[in-house]
Write a structure and sequence with these properties.
Helix content: 10-25%
Distance between the termini: 51 Å
CATH superfamily: Jelly Rolls
Largest sheet: 5 strands, antiparallel
Bound molecules: fe (ii) ion
Number of strands: 10
Number of helices: 3
CATH topology: Jelly Rolls
Number of domains: 1
């Protein structure tokens, strides 16, 4: 069987992700995991060139300020709402906030390879993330004042 993410690289990632998340909605909700210690990550699918991850967030849980190690990333909110802050790097290890956006159910968030951001769950949430190439941890930054 052809991997789900193989198809994603052949068409618009946003269009593909939105349609895939809609079709698999119930499976995704059932597969999401939640943990008091922090947001969780579940690998949904993988090819040599891309990965699809499902994240489960409890209200208030947040990422560090981070980049994506050169990955192009597209995300969609499956459930809940989150706040995304965008940053620009101002030093070797620090970044300044340059904007923010509330993300609600079905919102898409495309990130290019140089984007820096922080995501915080406003309420319990489930998000689906397509990484190309495969996910690897990015750099983290301190918030510049
Ligand atoms: Fe991110």
């Amino acid at each position: 069987m052809q991997s789900a993410v193989q198809l994603a690289t052949a068409v618009s990632p946003c269009r593909w992700l939105a349609e895939w998340a809609r079709i698999r909605d119930r499976e995704l909700v059932a597969a999401a995991r939640f943990d008091r210690a922090g947001y969780t990550r579940v690998l949904v699918d993988r090819t040599a060139a891309a990965e699809l991850w499902l994240l489960g967030w409890r209200a208030g849980q947040t990422t560090a300020i981070h980049d994506h190690a050169g990955c192009e990333t597209t995300s969609i909110v499956v459930r809940g709402s989150l706040l995304e802050g965008r940053y620009e790097q101002v030093g070797l290890e620090s970044a300044r906030r340059i904007g923010e956006r509330a993300l609600v159910e079905r919102d898409l968030e495309p990130l290019d390879a140089s984007s820096i951001h922080r995501v915080q769950a406003i309420e319990s949430a489930i998000t689906l993330h397509l990484y190309a190439p495969r996910y690897r941890p990015g750099r983290t930054f301190a918030e510049a004042t």
